[in-house]
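1st attempt posting a full record on here, be nice pls
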Amino acid sequence: MPSIIKCLSYTLPSNVYTNEDYYSNFPDVKSVNMEKIGVKQRHVITQGQTASDLAQLAAEKLFLEHSIDRNMIDFLIVSILEHDYYTPSTACVLHGKLGLQKKCGALDFDLGCSAYVYGLGLADGVMKSMGAKNVLLLTTSVLTKTFHPKDRNSHFVFGDAGTATLLTLSEKENLGPFVFGTDGSGFEKIIIRDGGTRNPLDKNSENELKDEFGNITSNANFAMDGIGVFNFSLKTVPTMIEELLTKASLTQNDIDLFVFHQPNKFLNETLRKKMNIPEPKFVHCLENTGNTVAGTIPIALYESIANGRLKPGMTVVLAGFGVGLSWAATIARF
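the predicted structure (as tokens):
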């Protein structure tokens, strides 16, 4: 049976990190160079809080906000990079904390910036091939925990968030087609090098590393090749959208809104102009949240519904791209 996005919710940590806070911590950074990123504040995880905590809060908010009976959920999919335990899967932990029925399937997957669209594809597949009727898709990221204290770029761009999306059965096809892609040769463009099984932490892992622009991180912390990711996005995203529209037998004129992953406003504006997408059809939504990784698209959808920009009957392109390197796009009808 076809699927549809029924409703969404999201939650943010209570700790707000404003641009004023940022410039207080990094007084040598010129604000004129940062404002084009489009972030004025971001929410940062508090001490002792985990990614799964945000996912749980987002799910509980969805149940309350949209009057959803949790006993109707028959599959749980969790996009998460920062797991509670090596094993079991965080989806199993969340299943118990949320009090879902025992007949409910549960699985994790970890990806990043393209994860929401991948998650929609997984949910749609579970419903079509495995008979699920109500799939709860959670995304969560607390990437700020991984930043080096002197990493002036990441501290400005990113924020933490948890999101929840309920997909249910539909009488007609409201989700798809999908386009997916991967370039594993670029896996080092966005990476935390040490701390996994390939490169365990050692005495040198926390040694400071300075790039050509003076930004500081270490092998134990998050690192991103900003220029490399920018160039990858400009090359990949237009082709991905063209492929998606061709696969759907649609043109840009048939699309009411384009909701892309929100890495930063400058990159997305560059993409919008390159693809000749009219401003009224393009969503920017990171001013108050920053780049929340897998959470940017569902947050943008939620806010677009709340402010009346996304209305029933609209056709929307969703596109994620980044860490992996990976990308994915689909069409959602609301």
